[in-house]
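Annotated sample (chain length 164).
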Amino acid sequence: MWRSAFALLLGVSTLMAEDPKQLYQEAMTASQAGNFAEARLMFEAVLAVQPGNQTARRQLELVTRKQEEAERLERSLNAIVLEKVEFNDVSAREAMNFVSQQVKKATDGKQPVNILWTVPGDQDPKVTLSLSSIPAGRAMRYIAENAGLQIVFDVSAVKVSVPR
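Output written by the structure step:
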């Protein structure tokens, strides 16, 4: 994690030296992709160079709220421990849906899990996992990781996509 944050800071400082407007656009792209921590760093960097940039300030406030809500979703999913999650050569989409159904069942329907599946139709990798006493959010991360997919806990959904 520290290496990626350091690499991001190096990239940010390079972009700042070149063009704060470009850095702002990169921050917007990161925010739209659900990469809220990355977007926050970039908006903060824009504001370090342009403290009066009210648009960047509003976006920073918005992305901070979104990051907090996304973290809340992940924490609430991780508070739900699933006894056993076992898949043998099952599609990643089916595995995610299974975990979602288990969360709904464990909470008597009080916590539905919205899954936004943006993986192209011809790509649905298979997963094989055997997990015991696993937090639901972590199980979803393991499924995505095992399938070579990216997972982002967003404000109101779990987004699954092909890594960029």
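Annotation: The domain at 80-161 is CATH 3.55.50.30 (Phage tail protein beta-alpha-beta fold).
Annotation: DSSP finds six helices and five strands in the chain.
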